[in-house]
Amino acid sequence: MNTAILGGTFNPFHIGHYEMLKAVCELKYIDRVIVIPDSLPPHKDVDFLASNEDRINMCKIACEDFDKAYVSTIEIENKGKSYTINTIKRLKELYPDDEFYFACGGDMIEMLDRWYDFDNLIKLTAFIAFDRPDMSNLKRDYDKMTELGANIVLVDHDIPSVSSSHFRETLSKDLLPKKIYEYIISKGIYDAQ
């Protein structure tokens, strides 16, 4: 079985995440998509982090629209910083016969070789990277990482360039799937009312 992983802080699960999830679910060679909210992202500081429960619920709301997708709390249960390689190793234990693909925005490809334990990570998973019109260097980054041994599948799909911090600053409902926006308002997350 081919399993794609969509990981992130999902603080909140915005329209860019949703479109990426949709695109991965539409890939014919992907049988299952595991959405994994992380506990503490190792690569960024966050001004406000919604509770684990709320971030998990937002992911579950998004997954309701896709038969292939479900949420795993594997990283949140682990506590501490979330490193992709540790998550993949754990998933390999749970699903030893699966082939894994880690889905990410094309912007992540540039720094892929700086991910924790990169040399072993690329032996355990392939990557699905999404191109965007504003990413002129993706082909260069793709070439560099594949020369280093990474298996990367480029997908041309229009993924909106949205940042979670921008939503938290503006509380714009245009940046979120409708059901997730309604959830945030009903719970008063990010001081939304």
C-alpha end-to-end distance: 43 Å
Q: How many strand units?
A: 6
CATH domain class name: Alpha Beta
Order of helices and strands: EHEHEHHEHEHEHH
The CATH architecture designation is 3-Layer(aba) Sandwich
Q: What is the CA-atom radius of gyration, in angstroms?
A: 16 Å
- The helix tally amounts to 8
Report the β-strand fraction as a percent range. 15-25%
CATH homologous superfamily placement = HUPs
Mean pLDDT: 88
**Any idea what the shape is?**
globular
The computed structural class is alpha/beta
Described by strand count, sense and barrel closure, the largest sheet is: 6 strands, parallel
Q: How much helical structure, as a percent, in the residues? A: 25-40%
What count of structural domains?
A: 1
CATH fold label: Rossmann fold
Structure description:
The structure is a single chain. The chain has 193 residues and is an alpha/beta fold. Helix 2 runs antiparallel to helix 8 (178-187). Helices cover 38% and strands 18% of the residues. Strands 3-2-1-4-5-6 form a 6-stranded parallel β-sheet, sandwiched between helices. It has a single domain (2-191), classed as Rossmann fold.
